[in-house]
Amino acid sequence: MCEVKVITGTSAAAEAAKLADVDVIAAYPITPQTTCVEKLAEFVANGELDAEYIKVESEHSAMSACIGAAATGARTFTATASQGLALMHEMLFIASGMRLPIVMMVANRALSAPINIWNDHQDSIAERDTGWIQIYAEDNQETLDSIIQAYKIAENENVLLPVMVCLDGFILTHTVEPVIIPKAERVRDFLGVYEPKHAYLDPDRPITQGPVGVPDCYMETRKQLEDAIERSKRVIKDVNAEFAELFNRKYGNGLVEAYNLDNADTVLVAMGTVCGTIKYVIDQLKKEGKNVGLLRIRTFRPFPKEDIKDLLKEVDNIAVLDKNVSFGFNKGALGIEMSSILKNKKVCNYIVGLGGRDIKIEDIKKIISHVEKAEDDETMWIGLKE
Amino acid sequence: MVTIAAIIYEPGNSIRNKTGTWRTFKPILDVEKCVKCENCYIFCPEGAIQEDENGNFKIDYDYCKGCLICMNECPVNAITKVREEK
Ligand code: SF4
Ligand code: SF4
């Protein structure tokens, strides 16, 4: 049996870290992540979770402490957002380069300046190339489930990479939803005990981690990392399927989720909570006899190229929504990736919801009617004031 | 074969992994000019300078990284540099 709690996304993330029975948490509070690490502090303080809680003076230190802890063989968790994630930037490369299976919750928030605490995806997208796996959740339940899955993916011997689970700031972090909390024993059975073979602290087996990688060997380590993140695609799918069997919930095939794709000639492609609004619009249009589909990208890294190509092969109009922008190219990251893999198709890019700007039902409808008439490769900013 | 994350699993591996492969300049020690003050021996960050059985100082090029600190520290200019030939 399980329990249902009506909780926020950050509480769901904290519950997940508790269920994963983490050994070390190092964190610095930053809006809108704070309530997650506050909850975890409470769990540790009242004895519900037996973990080392390291209070640090910055996010750079939080990630450094997680790296140190993970290098000893501990299961490690942290959480951050926006400027905090940016401050971790250099340590993110070290975590992935040292192949440490750290799991982190990212409460997606816009970057300054101007100071903005509301949601978009610019923060985690900016960390695209750090070698971390990135999962984008659509709701609070998926946040909890994804963090549990993330440990199983990260710790898989064919992967050994850190994972960030991203949830939209405020839209999920501060909104309550009923969330099913699985029984701790069942999660323990699913995850098992983390027993690192490559990186752990043992005085009887002295090893050097994070050594100098001279030109003689550096490139090989980078190729190993690329191969590992490529292999993670299979692992993410398997973990999603195994999770579905045990807990009766699944998220597409783990990498992508198809919604009403059969026979749709117009398809929207997006990540995170906006997919909920898109699904609502799709259902409405369906009643009016119009067939529009959604392809939700759950993992932005590894990028599910093969699944996307396969699922969109019959589709004429592809509208990609991005809550981020690559300045100087006037497209979002997802739009750029989609154009690069779907060369003979019409792919248009829509920049939406920056800094918490609402994405309304009318906006989604406007995108659908625009892409149907548009030329290939158009970019449009949606919701701008005149 | 490079191990995962280039982790080094056995101690003393520097016997196998020479660190003097990426030198641009090579220090040359002229034993005739040397006054045996030990400055280079003390300052070399790699411990690449040793005293041989005759009491002369000698550079171990397997581990010298070519930083030329020794050259700068030598009071009698007994150490000079040449470009490393690869
Ligand atoms: S060049 Fe640098 S490393 Fe080489 S012997 Fe001189 S001080 Fe030592
Ligand atoms: S510093 Fe110069 S003089 Fe002194 S021991 Fe070295 S080479 Fe000889």
From TrEMBL, chain A:
It is an enzyme of class 1 (oxidoreductase). InterPro entries: PFOR_II, Pyruvate:ferred/Flavod_OxRd, Pyruvate_synthase_PorA, Pyrv_Fd/Flavodoxin_OxRdtase_N, THDP-binding, Transketo_C/PFOR_II. Its EC number is 1.2.7.1. It catalyses: 2 oxidized [2Fe-2S]-[ferredoxin] + pyruvate + CoA = 2 reduced [2Fe-2S]-[ferredoxin] + acetyl-CoA + CO2 + H(+). It comes from the Archaea. GO terms for biological process: response to oxidative stress. One of its GO terms (molecular function) is pyruvate synthase activity. Keywords: Oxidoreductase, Pyruvate. It holds the Pfam family PFOR_II. Residues 264-364 form the Pyruvate:ferredoxin oxidoreductase core domain. Residues 15-239 form the Pyruvate flavodoxin/ferredoxin oxidoreductase pyrimidine binding domain. CDD domains: TPP_PYR_PFOR_IOR-alpha_like (cd07034). Heterotetramer of one alpha, one beta, one delta and one gamma chain. This is Pyruvate synthase subunit PorA.
From TrEMBL, chain B:
Keywords: 4Fe-4S, Electron transport, Iron, Iron-sulfur, Metal-binding, Pyruvate, Repeat, Transport. InterPro entries: 4Fe4S_Fe-S-bd, 4Fe4S_Fe_S_CS, PorD_KorD, Pyruvate_synthase_PorD. One of its GO terms (molecular function) is oxidoreductase activity, acting on the aldehyde or oxo group of donors, iron-sulfur protein as acceptor. Its cofactor is [4Fe-4S] cluster. It comes from the Archaea. Residues 25-54, 55-84 form the 4Fe-4S ferredoxin-type domain. Heterotetramer of one alpha, one beta, one delta and one gamma chain. This is Pyruvate synthase subunit PorD. It comes from Methanocaldococcus vulcanius (strain ATCC 700851 / DSM 12094 / M7).
